[in-house]
Design goal:
Ribosomal Protein S5, domain 2; elongated; six-stranded mixed sheet; single chain; 263 residues; 26% helix; alpha+beta; four-stranded antiparallel sheet
Length: 263
Amino acid sequence: MISNKETIAQLAKEGKRIDGRGLMDYRQPIQLETNISWTAEGSAKVQIGETVVMAGVKLAIEKPYNDTSDQGGIMINAELLPLSSPEYESGPPGIKAIELARVTDRGIREAKAIDMKKLCITPGEKAWFVIIDIVTINDAGNLFDAASLAALTALKAAKFPEVDPETGAINYKKKTDQGLPLLKEPLAVTIYKINGQLIVDPTTQEEHSYDARLTVASDEKGTISALQKGGELPLTIEEVGKMVDIALEKAKFLRAEVDKVVK
């Protein structure tokens, strides 16, 4: 596989890519699978080309935060396993894992995707908290899109566990038919700029060669909930506009893949 930055940049300038795809083409296959973990309330595995990411949703009853005493909460963690790339090591989350979790979190949180008030059981005392754990199985590029896909799919597949009405104890071995109160279905798409050209779904080699990137999170109506800029070089207003348009179009494409496996 060609990994020379100059070669990748030259190919991009000519509208070409190292694997023969078009600039706007996602790798194949794109595969989504739900309920891969019986210990999670919702789970999903996403594959884009050779990139594989898993997400699990756990539901716990906690005391609400003081400033949102009538609402539940959401937390997202990401772990880049050493088995998924030689670049990753065991230990505390690194900068890339923290950014992956924050970007995924922001797209969901700022969209107000979950009705947090419906997660409240007793104001000021008890509320459901949604914890999403994202784990990389194989990093072959484009973790941002894969993680967002996995998180949304796991959220849509999640079911509340049974709760004893007398003791309030959670029986995690039994799930109800009640899903999460989802108001919106945000998905993040990241557009990369390489040598003046815009591309989607980069390989690892292309990620090492980009000049700038923009992650755009949007819901099913095309409403943008979050933007995250990355890379050392700036973007013009015109480029940002083009990247947003591409992201909205590709989000529809990816959302159709989610709808195939979970409604």
